[in-house]
Amino acid sequence: MWHFFSSAFLLLYLLIVLFLARLGRRRLVPALVGRGRWLWYGGVALLASLFPIARLLGDLLPRTVDELVTDLGLLTAIGLFYVFMGVLLLGVSRRVWRWLRAAKGDDSGAGRLLRDRLWAAGLVLGTVGLMAYGHWEARNPRVVEYVLELPTAAAVSELHLVVVSDVHYGDNIDLPRLEQLRALIEPLEPDLIILAGDLLEGNDQRLVEELSSFFASLPSRYGVVAVPGNHDRALLDREGAAAMAMRASGIDLLQDERRLIAASLWVVGRDDYRRRAEYRAPVSALLSELDHSKAVLLLDHQPVELSQAAEAGADLFVAGHTHGGQVFPAQLFTWLIYGNDHGLSQVSGMNLLVSSGYGTWGPDLRIGAPPEVVSLRLRFLGAAVE
């Protein structure tokens, strides 16, 4: 499914680039002929190809080069898409206006060229302004609060969970941004901190140690549990230096493992779906031997295999990965792929919580998908357990 939508997106992107290149040459620089015309198309193609190059050759490029090409490519792709939407809206509005006026007006000559260039400048400035807002949105995270009542037995009446996903530490998120995260979490006084994957960007051991030390230093009654995500390549080897360093710091890294919290809540953490799909234990095997009189929280980086989790008896599924779409209108794609791509909902009687995450992938940009820390209060309504 993911490969289908990736291919469809790339095809759509190439068609948009071709449309804008042809339209721009005809309407903005109609005098270009011969070599000038090919220079125009070559420049547009070079700019637009940065994103596909980064996606196709990312693993072959040095990390710094890959990050630079990816960020520039994504910024270009996003900017071109917004210009394209502006062109469509402008074209529709002009046609409606002419229809209402019942007149075509003067649509030729120098006046038209000047008008088209002014509109183009307006679209570019509007796109730049929108992306500047997106940069501001990415750097202003919020706390989202939920309360969920469960009919299960428990030794406590309530557990306060804080969920953080998709930090992507080492890319746009640095130590000062981690301190901003601390300022959001510490006042919440959580019982348990849950890290829902994609914690790191890259394989640098120093980043692993810095991030582990940071989360281990946060106050939490029952500590910190985590699962790896598809970007956490350093954590995929269970016995590797990165995974061992994270566990040594006090973070409970769960890879198809389970923990009982406060004699009230089972937390079952799954290995990553994309990077280690062939190694993942079936969810039915992970949950079959649990005492289901207590609540079961299934922690998985990606919101996948939901019906299997519900059938196996999970009361709550917690995930990240989607970034809530990160940049409008990518929410349409994440909704088509995952269905329930953000927020608290229900699937086959199981509660599903998907966080939009704290960090970003690619450029430091979010539009219509603010970064968040999730505060989740679980209230147990069943019999008290000693």
Report, as a whole number of angstroms, the end-to-end distance.
46 Å
Poorly predicted spans: none
Share in helix: 40-55%
Please indicate the percent range of residues in DSSP E strands (runs of 2 or more). Answer: 15-25%
**Radius of gyration based on Cα positions:** 25 Å
State the strand order across the main sheet. Answer: 1-12-2-3-4-5
Largest sheet: 6 strands, mixed
* Strands, count: 12
General form: elongated
Structural class: alpha/beta
What order do the SSEs take from the amino end to the carboxyl end, as H and E?
HHHHHEEHEHEHEEEHEHEHEEE
Number of helices: 11
Mind sketching the topology for me?
Blueprint: H1 2-28, H2 35-48, H3 50-57, H4 63-101, H5 109-138, E1 142-150, E2 158-164, H6 175-185, E3 192-195, H7 205-216, E4 224-226, H8 241-248, E5 251-253, E6 257-261, E7 265-269, H9 283-287, E8 295-299, H10 306-312, E9 316-319, H11 331-338, E10 343-347, E11 350-354, E12 372-380
Parallel strand pairs: 1-12, 2-3, 3-4, 4-5, 7-8, 8-9, 9-11
Antiparallel strand pairs: 2-12, 6-7, 10-11
Helix pairs in contact: 1-2, 1-4, 3-4, 4-5, 7-8
